Batch of 2 targets.
Target 1
Amino acid sequence: MWQLVINTAHRHLSIGLLKDGVYVDGVHEVAFKSQSEVILPRLKQCLSKYHLNPQDLSEVYVGLGPGSYTGVRIGLSVVKVLALVCSFEVFTFNSYDFMLAQHEGTMIMDARSSRAYVGIKQDHQWIFQGIMTLDELKSSMIPPYVGDTDLVNQQDSSLDFKALCEHVCLVSERVSDVHVLEPLYIKSL
């Protein structure tokens, strides 16, 4: 069973191709303000390397955010269009699970206006998921730090993209109607 993970909520374009839940290949590159231009060529590149078409996919996992308003909509739009012509199942995940996965620490994504989307995980439990001012964040952080760590003058820990893709396949929720999917906006947190 072929599976695809797409996340466009952050400055990275993330596309992971999995076979039976095991990472095979993918793209994780900085594409800030260019995701709409590069997502389809990168998707085609990833699939064609294994002689696959979107119709060969059994499951597609897509990030709902929170994150970049436009970025999240790009990923969702691609999945919605593909779902019109393909018969794969669709699953969703949030940015916190994608960026921090099974690790502990603090996930930070710029929410603008001196705020950040923050996920804090300790002892394998989420202790916070939401929005904080940068001042609040500085007093609440638990190392290691991932994401937009420059906002709080910290070093970014490297993400294990392979593990992130495999993890979201385990924690995602199945969608009954892909066409009613909506991003997790700042107002909904």
Target 2
Amino acid sequence: MKNALFLVDDRWHSGASIEPLVDKVFDNEEWNVIFSNDPEKLYNSDLDLIVTFKDPLEDNTIPTPMWTYEKWTECCLKMVESGTGFLAFHAGTLNLPEDHKIVKNLTHAVFITHPEQCELKVDIIKSHPVTEGVDSFTLPVIDEHYHMKIVDEDKVTILANTVSKYGTQPGLWVSEYGKGRICCFTPGHTTESLTSDGFVKIMKNAVKWCERD
């Protein structure tokens, strides 16, 4: 049985809206999924995969401190370097500064802004195990079009762009850190988008690629 920590819940993205995705992606005969809002579940866990949909700033209006503090970050980096896969989807790509170790070593991108929700297309631009069997698609409902800055272009492979009336942005990319593989995907604000065929296929492919199955 393989183990995955699936982090959710922040001010703008409830765990309840994300939970329907779990059964569509993970076979419960193969995976033990720890679906939690507690980042400290990372400790003392034998993990094959870390998935985060959780905004590092739990509340942007108070604000609360980042939960990706030094101890958590160092533990995460050590796991990934040793071969644990890492997926940062939607809010999991938000609100870390450019000099944060997770940005420098894993995600290689920072969030800039997003306009009002709009029709959003995922435009596949590169063949890769993560995009296998996936054609370009438009999300079924309006979504948040994240504007991102890739900070280490030589360390990532961009697999898809997100496209809307507000322009084109990098939307799906992969990288590696030590023995670990990383995948980042920026759309997915609603349950309808998260459980759409294209999104589910990308995430299933990403899980398989990142955990080196």
